[in-house]
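[Meeting: bench + compute handoff]

Bench side (C.D.) handed over the final construct sequence. Compute side (W.E.) agreed to return the predicted structure before the next meeting so the bench team could plan truncations. Sequence as handed over:
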Amino acid sequence: MDETEHNPKVNVITRWIGTLLVRLIVPAWIFFGAFTKASGATPKSLPRTILDAGSAIGFADHLHLLLAILTAIEFAFVGVMLFVPKLARTAAVVMLSTFLVVLIVAISRGETSCGCLGDHSLAPWTMFIIDASLLLAIIVFKPRMSRCNKSKAKRGLVGSSVFILGAWIFTFSSIFYSVEKNDNNLPDSWYPQDVSAWVGQSIDTIDLFGWVVNWPQDIHNGKQYVIFYAKTCDHCESLLYLDTFFDLRVPTTLVAIPEAKEGFFTEGLFDNPCFNCKETELPIGVDWIIGTPLVVAIENGIVQCANENEEYESPQCLNW
């Protein structure tokens, strides 16, 4: 027998801890993540693992819809945990287990953000530790048995339905309110699904290159580097401080990526050390979901190498 069977007081305490976990702490944790994603209204809050999976089933051109559906599902689980005691523990286990699977894949792929809490997301390893700890606590501390009569069960069903309906209205209205019609054939959001597939292609056939505001006239001539970067990106700054860009041997074009649909950030910018680099930018009005720096090596307009999140310590595409 375990200690809880010998000591009724301990048993009551552990049961209340379990109840507090599945009825308050876990739903509050999941609610915060869903609320920040709905309020932020950007597919950037989704990890690449989810974006790739969504694109595989037809959401490549509907990333805002994918964000809304996944956020609505999280709110639905929160509603069950808050108002349906008999299903609260099961809902918490299912939701946290799903989060852990996504985090394991994200960590294995080397992703730096899981998007679990929207713009407030922590590192995937940190989120994994938190979610795993909550799941373990739920398994160890079983909640107290719910003694609900039919009247209470009906009130719980009504409460969860009202909560879920309200959360869904907020989610879809908030996310789709941010989607604006572009008159210049730009997407609402865009991310490169597989930049390695660009190798051997002409830059004229790649959508991203067609959206750049102004290319240098000689972009198709000889060997060149193209670096898509954010002006607030620490990795981009470190890459541009390499000796390669102080003694520029290969013509290089820097393409600035707007940090938000509304435009570029005005604070936290780094000073560009590459004085001889040509500069241009991507247009505003799009959620650009690009791992920066994205380095592309081209020769006579043909892509020779392309890599997102290029490491400045051992860059793969700066070989000339």
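W.E. noted at the follow-up: The radius of gyration is 24 Å. C.D. will use this when planning the next construct.
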